[in-house]
Automatic annotation (TrEMBL):
Keyword Transmembrane helix applies: no
Gene Ontology CC: cytoplasm
NCBIfam families: peptide-methionine (R)-S-oxide reductase MsrB
Region feature Disordered, mapped onto this chain: 1-24
Pfam entry (one): SelR
Statement: the UniProt record of this protein carries the keyword DNA damage: no
The MsrB domain, residue ranges: 25-149
Primary gene name: msrB
GO molecular function, one term: peptide-methionine (R)-S-oxide reductase activity
PANTHER family found in the cross-reference section: METHIONINE SULFOXIDE REDUCTASE (PTHR10173), METHIONINE-R-SULFOXIDE REDUCTASE B1 (PTHR10173:SF52)
Reactions catalysed according to its record: L-methionyl-[protein] + [thioredoxin]-disulfide + H2O = L-methionyl-(R)-S-oxide-[protein] + [thioredoxin]-dithiol
Record protein name field: peptide-methionine (R)-S-oxide reductase
Source taxon at top rank: Bacteria
Composition-biased stretches (Polar residues): 1-10
Length: 150
């Protein structure tokens, strides 16, 4: 699987809550595959149309691959044709946190797991998505695990 990588620095600031799951870099490396580590801990990105959940149709709950927290429900997944799994809303409450990402010469909104501050992807706003929120949470498959539902 091809990945792009960038490092956004340390998660956590005066405006975002501290992660509940805290591990050393060595502990994350031991737990995660190299591809998972690059995306989840170094804010990398899968190449489009390569992730295991891009075309996934099963029902269930998508969890953070790093800590297991529930993030998205399959009912909010939609076909955006962008190359990554897309959702129009995360689970209610504080499942994810968002922060400004100014890498790549533009301002985007990065999405992280609220529990462990692992990088998930980005969220984009725009009319034309045909969703109730006009949002597209563009998430890396390698950041997720699907717990199939009934």
């Amino acid at each position: 699987m091809g990945l792009f990588s960038r490092n956004t620095g340390d998660a956590g600031s005066d405006t975002e809550p501290a992660p509940k799951v805290v591990k050393t870099d060595e502990e994350w490396r031991a737990q995660l595959s190299p591809a998972e580590y690059q995306v989840l801990r170094q804010a990398g990105t899968e190449r489009p149309f390569t992730g295991e959940y891009t075309d996934e149709k099963r029902t269930g709950v998508y969890r953070c691959r790093a800590c297991g927290s529930e993030l998205f429900r399959s009912e909010t997944k939609f076909e955006s044709h962008c190359g990554w799994p897309s959702f129009f809303t995360p689970l209610a409450g504080e499942a994810v946190i968002e922060r400004t990402d100014t890498t790549m010469g533009m301002a985007r909104t990065e999405v992280l797991c609220a529990n462990c501050h692992s990088h998930l992807g980005h969220v984009f706003a725009g009319e034309g998505y045909g969703t109730p929120t006009d949002l597209r949470y563009c998430i890396n498959s390698v950041s997720l695990t699907l717990e199939p539902g009934e």
